[in-house]
């Protein structure tokens, strides 16, 4: 693992996968962290910004019981046009949950490719 702070953040907080035919679990986890950190930096350089919207859907149908707030997130370019989005994000405290940054990096990665 690298000493790069953004990569370390995603290494610690993001989900990951690996291809057992070509890499170890550690390599897969590191690859994912590096990719999300690069997407986050790309989004910042491109002027991509993220709008979080409270979703008032009244029926949560996730695998685990949940009665907290549900959020939608839209990645917008400099002109305010949507370039990626994700809905129905279960997150208690949007201001302090590290998952917010993970979602934004994943949307940046989607917009980038």
**Approximately how much helix is present in the residues?**
25-40%
Radius of gyration: 15 Å
How many DSSP H or I helices?
Answer: 3
Task: Provide the domain count.
Answer: 1
Elements, N to C (H/E) = HHEEEH
Mean pLDDT figure: 92
How would you classify the helix and strand content by structural class?
Answer: alpha+beta
Q: Low-confidence spans: pLDDT under 50, at least 5 residues?
A: none
According to DSSP, the number of beta strands is 3
Kindly estimate the percentage of residues that lie in beta strands according to DSSP. 15-25%
Keywords:
alpha+beta, three-stranded antiparallel sheet, globular
Compile the SSE list and pairings.
Layout: H1 5-13, H2 25-46, E1 49-55, E2 70-76, E3 82-90, H3 99-112
Antiparallel strand pairs: 1-2, 2-3
Helix pairs in contact: 1-2, 2-3
């Amino acid at each position: 693992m690298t000493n790069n702070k953004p990569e370390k953040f995603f290494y610690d907080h993001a989900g990951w996968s690996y291809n057992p035919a070509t890499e170890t679990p550690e390599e897969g986890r590191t690859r994912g962290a590096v990719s999300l950190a690069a997407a986050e930096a790309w989004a910042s350089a491109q002027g991509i910004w993220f709008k979080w919207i409270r979703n008032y859907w009244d029926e949560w149908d996730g695998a685990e019981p949940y009665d907290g707030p549900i959020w939608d997130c839209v990645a917008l370019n400099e002109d305010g046009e949507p370039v990626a989005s994700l809905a129905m994000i279960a997150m208690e405290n949007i201001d302090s949950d590290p998952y917010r940054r993970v979602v934004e990096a994943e949307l940046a990665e989607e917009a980038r490719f």
